[in-house]
Amino acid sequence: MSRPLLELVGAEGNSASPLVDALRPEFRVPVIDAPVGDPVLGLARCLVDRCGDGAITLDGLCRRHRRDWDRDGRPAIGEWIGQERGQERGQEQDAKRESGERVPTSVDVFDLRGLPDRLTREIQFGLQCRVDEGRIKTQPRRLMPLVRLLRRIGVDSLQEHTLDQWHELLTYGRGIGRVNTSIAFIRDCLEYLDRLEGRTGWDAEYPKNIWQLKRLGYPALRTATLRFDRIEPEWLRGLAKRWCRWRLSTGTSEGAVASNLFAVTRFCKFLQEACQPMPGPWALDRQLIERYLAWLAVNCPDPNSRRKDLGGFAAFLRTLQQHRWAPDLSPGAMIFNEDYPDMPAPKARALTEFVASQLERESNLARFEDPRLRLLTELLQRTGLRVGDARQLPVDCLDKDHYGAAYLRYHNHKMRRDARTPIDDLLAESIAAQQRRVKAEFPAGTVLFPMVSGNALGTRPVSRAAYAKKLNQWVRDCDIRTEAGDPVHVHPHQFRHTYATRLINSGVPQHVVKKLLDHDSDTMTSHYARLSMQTVREEWSKATKVNVSGEVVEDDGGDLDDAIWLKNSLSRAKMALPNGFCTLPLQQSCEYANACLSCPMFLTTPEFLPQHKTQLVETRALLDSARQRGQERLTEMNEKVERNLLSIISSLESAESGCCGPSSACSCRTAPKGTENAC
């Protein structure tokens, strides 16, 4: 950027204007170079070594090397670059440099000549700010169509039109190619100018119908704007603005405010479709709300979405009543508890063990091309963090106690507080390796999982959408499938549900699970416990159950299913057995004194098969000893136990192998293995 400086003077002749003072010398020129390799302004370097030109295609080649590659029949680029033909031009350029001959390079430039002075300074300032942010690629080949258009239409300043007017102006028949790229640059320039001239904060943003949350000091990681332009009538829009400002000031998250604002917007959509005028707050009465409830039930059939909308609109009405912001608002303008649809039973979102085990397999995890995304996936699997908390982890996120145990420190954005969770040593080592990679690539980086592009400083985390896309691309590459053979689609939050359900199934106390997940109440944690009991019951129903005589016991079915399951659960709580379950009702006493293999209430399943085989060996040893001593009573008791054990083992082994059962009518008992009749 070494071109002669151009002293720009404002239309009013004041060269010391804030805009001129804010421009650095390298940007205060009519033609600004965009060097190849510049992280914001320039093209990426050509893949061929010692070539000084910029890559203009997705293949990573400059214009000249792309032409040579086409002439050579377009072989594999990696092989072609390594061959002598691909290096030929680079060697020619080296020879010219050594001889002192000038080597032409295809340097892109921003040519702002012919624009009004004020407009030139605004574009220069926009380029300077984008370079300082190091976030968005702004190359001449993308921006120059806009510059040429501005020359044609003859505007003196970007501030002559609003952003909506610019969008309309550029969209219809202007032929500038990528309209969104131009609109984004104009939007940023207007924001930079507002910031420079002090037009920021609530005084500047509140009157607008679209609030840019970044201008109000909010990070806007997921929610960038709050839109009021769809809210009619105007008096309702004013109340909605006041409500949103108050909620933001109380610490409510931007996402929650945007969600509630959408509920008000949906109510306005109902007014528009119903052609219902609402000249003042007094017209918002219970009769109108009941009409809205009927409309919402038809247009929003999903009960969860409807409850969400009603909750947001109810909060809006409640605030108006409490703060008396609309004194003439009808007292009947309220949403009652009876207005909400019934809450459907939440569905289990945890991954099945069949799918989860595939996702955790080392051979599949090794297929991640990006080590950041592999670590992020493992972290979600093994800690149960929300993906929004995990992807925004700071570089310095590891703590250790005096025993050397590792803990992960993170910010719970939903609860707006810091938290820690214990992690295993292998995960801690992987995090430490990622910390070293980040510090090597981004010395000033602040996040553990930085975005790859548009992130020169390493301060922006990988986006939620980008990770979800890469995650499911990896799932497809690994060919992860369900038990039925169907392809799997994984949502990152399912890892949290899987982690919590596993903890409950492993017998971890509910209050410990609550602490590990950093829940604020027991309600959500109890949701996992309820789903865990459902899973256990389903497995119990599918399991083959055998009584003391070796007979297969079927579930009764019908209306008694729930009661039978409850009775068996209570019985297992009363009598814990190492080799099965007691089905005796809790209210009755046991006369067998733990001699369960002679008890008609005894029940067992294939999971206890090893214990039964061990007990058979021990029983036969007792029989041999009793017979040698002539202890007839003891021999008789153990012979009955031996017979029962043989029947139980036979039935359970048949169930595991898929045999049709111990009945003598089954031909598989006598058919040779491998024949058609053998199970």
Low-confidence stretches: 1-16, 572-576, 660-679
Main pleated-sheet profile: 4 strands, antiparallel
Distance between the termini: 82 Å
**What is the count of β-strands?**
11
Helix count, DSSP H or I runs of 4 or more residues:
25
Order the strands across the largest sheet as they lie in space: 9-8-11-10
What Rg is obtained from the alpha carbons, in whole angstroms?
36 Å
**Which shape, going by the Cα principal axes?**
extended
What does this protein structure show overall?
By secondary structure, this protein is mainly α. The protein contains 25 helices and eleven strands. It has helices at 18-22, 63-71, 77-82, 84-98, 117-133, 140-153, 163-171, 179-196, 202-205, 234-249, 254-273, 286-299, 303-323, 353-359, 362-365, 371-383, 387-391, 425-441, 464-477, 494-505, 510-517, 522-542, 561-574, 609-629, 632-657, and strands spanning 31-34, 108-111, 210-212, 225-227, 398-400, 406-412, 417-422, 545-547, 552-553, 581-582, 602-604. The strands form four sheets. The chain has a four-stranded antiparallel beta sheet. It has a three-stranded antiparallel beta sheet with strand order 5-6-7, with helices on one face. Helix 16 packs antiparallel against helix 18 and helix 24 (609-629) runs antiparallel to helix 25.
